[in-house]
């Protein structure tokens, strides 16, 4: 199927041309953009509520080749007083690149390392590819041996297990549309988690990707492999870099199910972690499909370390928010190629306002952890991270509204100002909710930027089209009039920051009023909103006459959950 925008009709029209199948059309009438998104999510499902710690800073690299190296990275971050909540490992940890194993020499003390991180208030995540090594001697690799017994793998057109090739060599691919596969997958995760108590899982290569075309034996000649219409895919065939379209899964052929592979794996992984840990799952997926936001966050793939990719990351993040995946971000400082100090500073400043913030780097590149740069750059990065951590109560509240009412977290300007034609084309600025306007530097060497401020009064958090000063240590963030932003003093982990005092930034409107809210729970337990284990606080401020300002708040306390504060809030007024 393909679609095109045609102008031969009396008005512009979308025309679908299909080669077969069943086409269901859902029409969402709005009338405003946010209503359209809400109506869409009522069909595909509202996004999950992430654990609080997942909104902190994440650090990863393909190339942390030992536990010693991984520990050293986390310690250097701590020594340099950079907030760090989650340390990651790429496939370096795995024995012969086989998932559900860890190298006995380079990562022999992996379980102890994870426990050490936990004692420091940190979390740990590692990569989990779907490809299961099929070349290990029988009886030596339980995930494949058990998978064979339980018949969990995708078959080729002749009914034999389809063999592809990924990092460990020859691999079989789980069929997550099969309920038995999901049970086997949970058993594999449970067994590994009993040794290495990971806090979340990063499901990569789940398009699914393969290094051979279709399978090790090729694909049969059929209409599924060579349909009447083939999109302009890399390699020119639907099976390029993935599985044969004629492959057999429980529900149908891979031709019908290919685009859903990441979604079905995310569902299986989310369910497994929830059952095993008994807490809110964290899953990050590369592949996506409508509805994946119920189970997983997404990152934007292996972006390059350049200014163009920095700019492109904003519309990419905003689009996923519209698709019902609010937990999204790009690899901060870029994944492919060497970053520069200036680029990495600017990317850390922008990344501080991605809903999901992770610095990730490829093996051969120069290091890009914050502590490797000069003192001026480190100070700018530290300031950006501290600003993010101070705003986490506000960000968490935005995720609550996304989870319960389909609100967007990172928001395009046109969503909030649909009648302002100037906002339609703005893709270098964005909002957090309706309150904060973020205007990052996206050009090399820039020390000022042209930003569009929609109608109303906007207050700078640091003290029309406007030319804003933007030296290296500055990211421009403005608070919209009439809003109150809940914040906390930052710390090196969210465990520590959640114990810090709250304060409020109040931006009175021209009419002399402001409103804000805060959702607060333990940050990790399942279904806290649904079961009533939370606090919800509303704040109001108003001006009476020219000088007198009144402030009030209402706390809805449920099940005795207490906020870490007295009845007096520290209030700072945006002037």
TrEMBL record:
<comment type="similarity">
    <text>Belongs to the glycosyl hydrolase 31 family.</text>
</comment>
<keyword id="KW-0378">Hydrolase</keyword>
<protein>
    <submittedName>
        <fullName>Alpha glucosidase</fullName>
    </submittedName>
</protein>
<dbReference type="InterPro" id="IPR030459">
    <property type="entry name" value="Glyco_hydro_31_CS"/>
</dbReference>
<dbReference type="GO" id="GO:0005980">
    <property type="term" value="P:glycogen catabolic process"/>
</dbReference>
<dbReference type="InterPro" id="IPR030458">
    <property type="entry name" value="Glyco_hydro_31_AS"/>
</dbReference>
<dbReference type="InterPro" id="IPR000322">
    <property type="entry name" value="Glyco_hydro_31_TIM"/>
</dbReference>
<dbReference type="InterPro" id="IPR017853">
    <property type="entry name" value="GH"/>
</dbReference>
<dbReference type="Pfam" id="PF01055">
    <property type="entry name" value="Glyco_hydro_31_2nd"/>
</dbReference>
<dbReference type="InterPro" id="IPR013780">
    <property type="entry name" value="Glyco_hydro_b"/>
</dbReference>
<feature type="domain" description="Glycoside hydrolase family 31 TIM barrel">
    <location>
        <begin position="47"/>
        <end position="398"/>
    </location>
</feature>
<dbReference type="InterPro" id="IPR048395">
    <property type="entry name" value="Glyco_hydro_31_C"/>
</dbReference>
<keyword id="KW-0326">Glycosidase</keyword>
<dbReference type="GO" id="GO:0004558">
    <property type="term" value="F:alpha-1,4-glucosidase activity"/>
</dbReference>
<keyword id="KW-0325">Glycoprotein</keyword>
<keyword id="KW-0732">Signal</keyword>
<dbReference type="GO" id="GO:0005765">
    <property type="term" value="C:lysosomal membrane"/>
</dbReference>
<feature type="domain" description="Glycosyl hydrolase family 31 C-terminal">
    <location>
        <begin position="407"/>
        <end position="485"/>
    </location>
</feature>
<dbReference type="Pfam" id="PF21365">
    <property type="entry name" value="Glyco_hydro_31_3rd"/>
</dbReference>
<dbReference type="GO" id="GO:0007040">
    <property type="term" value="P:lysosome organization"/>
</dbReference>
């Amino acid at each position: 199927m393909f679609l095109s925008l045609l102008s031969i009709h009396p008005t512009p029209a979308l025309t679908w041309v299909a080669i077969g199948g069943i086409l269901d059309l859902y029409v969402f009438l709005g009338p405003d953009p946010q209503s359209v998104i809400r109506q869409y999510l009522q069909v595909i499902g509202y996004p999950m509520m992430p654990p609080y710690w997942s909104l902190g800073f994440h650090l990863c690299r393909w190339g942390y080749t030992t536990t010693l190296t991984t520990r050293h990275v986390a310690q250097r971050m701590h020594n340099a007083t950079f907030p760090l909540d989650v340390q990651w490992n790429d496939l370096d940890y795995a024995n012969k690149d086989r998932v559900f194993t860890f190298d006995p020499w380079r990562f022999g003390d992996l379980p102890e390392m994870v426990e050490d991180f936990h004692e420091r208030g940190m979390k740990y995540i590692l990569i989990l590819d779907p490809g299961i090594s099929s070349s290990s001697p029988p009886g030596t690799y339980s995930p494949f041996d058990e998978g064979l017994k339980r018949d969990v793998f995708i078959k080729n057109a002749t009914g034999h297990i389809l063999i592809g090739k990924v990092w460990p060599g020859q691999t079989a691919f789980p069929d997550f549309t099969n309920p038995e596969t999901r049970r086997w997958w949970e058993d594999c995760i449970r067994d590994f988690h009993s040794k290495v108590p990971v806090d979340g899982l990063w499901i990569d290569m789940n398009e699914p990707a393969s290094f051979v075309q279709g399978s090790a034996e090729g694909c049969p000649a059929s209409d599924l492999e060579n349909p009447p219409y083939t999109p302009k895919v890399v390699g020119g065939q639907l099976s390029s870099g993935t599985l044969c379209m004629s492959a057999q899964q429980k529900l149908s052929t891979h031709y019908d199910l290919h685009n859903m592979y990441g979604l079905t794996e995310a569902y299986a992984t989310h369910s497994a972690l929830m059952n095993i840990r008994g807490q809110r799952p964290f899953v990050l997926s590369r592949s996506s499909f409508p509805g994946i936001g119920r189970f997983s966050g997404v990152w934007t793939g292996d972006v390059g370390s350049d200014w163009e990719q920095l700019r492109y990351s904003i519309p990419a993040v905003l689009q996923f928010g519209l698709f019902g995946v609010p937990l999204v971000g790009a690899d901060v400082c870029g994944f492919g190629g060497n970053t520069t100090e200036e680029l990495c500073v600017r990317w850390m400043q922008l990344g501080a306002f991605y809903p999901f913030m992770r610095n990730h780097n490829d093996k051969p590149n120069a290091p890009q952890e914050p502590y490797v740069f000069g003192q001026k750059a480190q100070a700018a990065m530290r300031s950006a991270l501290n600003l993010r951590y101070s705003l986490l109560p506000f960000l968490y509240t935005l995720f609550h509204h996304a989870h319960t009412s389909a609100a967007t977290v990172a928001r395009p300007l046109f969503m909030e100002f649909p009648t302002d034609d100037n906002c339609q084309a703005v893709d270098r600025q964005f909002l957090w909710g309706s309150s904060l306007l973020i205007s990052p530097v996206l050009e090399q060497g820039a020390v000022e930027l042209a930003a569009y401020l929609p109608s109303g009064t906007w207050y700078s958090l640091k003290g029309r089209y406007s030319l804003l000063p933007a030296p290296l240590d500055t990211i421009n963030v403005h608070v919209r009039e009439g809003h109150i932003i809940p914040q906390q003093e930052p710390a090196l982990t969210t465990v520590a920051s959640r114990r810090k005092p709250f304060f409020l930034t109040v931006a009175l409107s021209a009419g002399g009023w402001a409103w804000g809210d805060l959702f607060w729970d333990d940050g990790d337990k399942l279904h806290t909103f649904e079961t009533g284990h939370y606090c919800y606080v509303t704040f109001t401020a108003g001006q009476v006459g020219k000088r007198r300002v009144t402030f009030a708040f209402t706390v809805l306390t449920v099940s005795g959950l207490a906020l870490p504060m007295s009845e007096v809030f520290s209030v700072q007024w945006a002037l």
